[in-house]
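Appendix B, record 7
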Amino acid sequence: MKILILEDDQALQRQLADTLLAENYEVDTRSDGDDGLFMAREYEYDLAIIDIGLPKISGIDVIKSLRAENNTLPILILTARSSWKDKVHGLKAGADDYLVKPFEIEELLARLEALLRRASGYSSHVIQQGPIKLDTQTQELWVDDLEVDLTAFEYKLLEYFLRHPKRIVSKSALMDYLYDEESDRDVNVLEVLIGRLRRKLDPDNHIKPIETLRGRGYRFAIKAS
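C-alpha cells (predicted):
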C-alpha cells in the first residue's frame, strides 16, 4: 500500500513516515500543498494523510481541488485546531476522516486501516477473489487453500490488483505504484513480475486472473474455469 503524507512539521512528517514504513507501507512525503497536489494528481496512492495548515496551498484547498477533479483518493486530515468548525470544513471539502494533534500512533494506524478497508469494499483485512485469498496483515496468500510464497514486489502488485478489481491500470501507473521516485524503472521487469504472479496464482491457467489489454495495461478479473 502506498501512502502520501502532506505535513510541513518536519519532525511529525519523519515520525509518520518511519511508522508507516515499519508497518510495510510505501511512503512519499511533501511539505507544502503545491507539491502535494502535484503528487496526488500524477501518481497512484492508496491513501493520503493531509495536514490542514499547509503552506502555499492549504490542505483544505488541496482536498477541494482533488474532489473537483473526481479524484476519490481516501483522505485523512490532520489538524492542530480543536474547533469543531475546522473538522467540519475538512469533511465538507471531501476528507474521509480526521485526527486532531496530538494523537496516538496506534489510533492513526487504526484509522488508516479502516479507511483502506472501506475504500476497497472489504470489512476485514482478508481480501478474497475466487480461489485467491490474501491476508493484508500477515501478508500470507492462499490459492485453493494452499499457501503460496510471494516476494515483496509480488505482494505489492497482488494487493493492488485485489483492491482494484476490474480496473484497467496502465504499465506506467503500476510502475509509479511499485517504485519510489528515485528508482530505476524498466517495463520489462514489470512484465516479468506479472508473468511470475500469473504462474503462482493460476498454475493450470484456468481462472486467468490478470488480463493484458494491448495498449492500455492490465486488469484483474477472475474468470470462470
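Remarks on this record: The chain has a mean pLDDT of 87. Residues 5 and 29 are 5 Å apart (CA to CA).
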